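Standup notes
- HV: blocked on the assembly model, inputs below
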Amino acid sequence: MAEVANNTPPIVPGQIQAAEEKAVSPWKEAWKSFKKNKLAIVGFSIVVFFILLAIFAPLLAPHDIAKQELANKHIPPSAEHWFGTDEFGRDILSRIIYGARISLWVGFLSVAGSVIVGSFLGIIAGYYGKWIDAIISRIFDIILAFPSILLAIAVVSVLGPSLRNALIAIAIINVPTFGRLLRSRVLSVKEEEYVTAAKAIGMKDSRILIHHILPNSLAPIIVQGTLAIATAIIECAALGFLGMGAQPPTPEWGKMLADSRAFIIEAPWTVLFPGLAIMLTVLGFNLMGDGLRDALDPRMKN
Amino acid sequence: MFSYTIRRLGALIPVLLGMVFIVFIMIRAIPGDPAQLILGQQATKESIQALTSQLGLDKPWYTQFFEYLGGLFKGDLGVSIKTDVPISEEVWPYLTATIELSLVAMLFAIIVGVNAGIISAWFQNSWFDYIAMVVALIGVSMPVFWLGLMEQYVVSIQWDLLPTTGRDNIRDPVEAITGLYLIDTLMAGRVDQFIEVIKHLILPGFALGTIPMAIIARMTRSSMLEVMRSDFIRTARAKGMKMFWVVYKHSLKNALIPVVTVIGLQTGLLLGGAILTETIFGWPGIGTYIYEAIGSRDYPVIQSGILVIATIFVLINLVVDLLYAAIDPRIKYK
């Protein structure tokens, strides 16, 4: 498109300057409507806030997260320790700030994994159809036939409890979401005239898939991906809470909750703040995802 | 409709077989010797061998698979290693406990969610609408285990209103007849126990029902808003029909399809959420059953427990699909 624009003849003074009115790209259009959506901007800000927290954790955390001072055990929220301290005298605020790294890392990476694997399988199933489609679709059906957290628990119980395995489990359970999405996109795009045209001029399948079908599926992937990050963060915390995710002393939010449960009577703040952090992050991604859906694809709205 | 039901049931068979296969393979993919893992480091060679053959692990995997599958057809879910009791007998009280909790949670979610959604749509952009939708937004993002802990802290510990854990009073346990304690206590004519059971159900039911409630409320609202803009609603209003009937009869009926879809999906998700809720509230349900089995490496229980939940999940989804036709005669299955 840019080349075409550059080839237009220079505008001569006195002529009608119709050439200046360029077509607005659909992404710019979407950004415009996203900006107008207040809730979406709130969500976006929350997400950016936590991303900054994660990136600059070493600078922002007021205390060492590993240092245990039993003398400072269970100090209520104060000027020194905004969110109080836990049963080992560790500063909860600092641990929550570092915890943002873990939750966001698991969220982004697991969803990236699901998107890549799911898109690949979905595109193949949709484009080639027949028995390939039948097999892949049945596999998706079977994965979706399990309640997701249960399947994640099962996968982790096989692989062994660790943050990495929790991430893998979360990625696996989200694969069919993207697989089905891409498959249905391919099925509808495949019938478009420009794909027929591409085929007619002898374009290879792989090129059609990468250059035509994938870009046309980007918007729903972004929307679904944002919402999936929210779910992934909750699932990561849930696995951590059940002792099947991050292991101590990793400051994972779900694990922090599980560890401080026993002290809920004497030190309720140890349970309150990690949970608030989870909720706020998830809320941010949910709001942003809803906003993106409205902005990018109004037809996807139910 | 009948032939459609039959065909859908037929289509379930490959999915169910696939599920059995996946769970079967997964349990066998655990690195190391399961018998060794179960018995620990000190186990003698003889005891390991004995357990290996008891589990049937000395046979080729396909023989194991078909034996397991054959057993499933006969209702044989295997035998728990820890308790040595057949799982099909042992699982029942756990299953009914989960069913009771899920039903209560879902009932709460549907009643509150659907009505909040309707009222929000009816009085769109009112303060009720705003508050309901903010609460729903927060509800959707709420980790169920955290909500449970907060409930316990505020309601049980601070206010001392409701019990924190369990299904009934330990000192006065309910005699199980159906396994659904709400029914059992009434059958036994024990109103005091019935109230006790309700008290135990409120906190976990609320925690488990919050997310579906929020999602149902949002879906009902958007679906209602769409229907209420249509021509036949304007006609109903124009002929002087009371707004209440327009909303609850004409609009609701037509707005219900997406709501039912969501309710069905959420009922399935509820089973997953139940696992977390149960661990927090010490609820003796199937989630606790599987979770404890994972802790003690009781593989037959893990395998069959997961299958039981997944089968229920699949069946619920089928029922939801069939319900569409009942609600909306425009949908015809061929």
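- HV (later): unblocked. Chain A has one domain: 36-58+84-300. The CA atoms of residues 66 and 90 of chain A lie 7 Å apart.
- Next: hand off to the docking folks.
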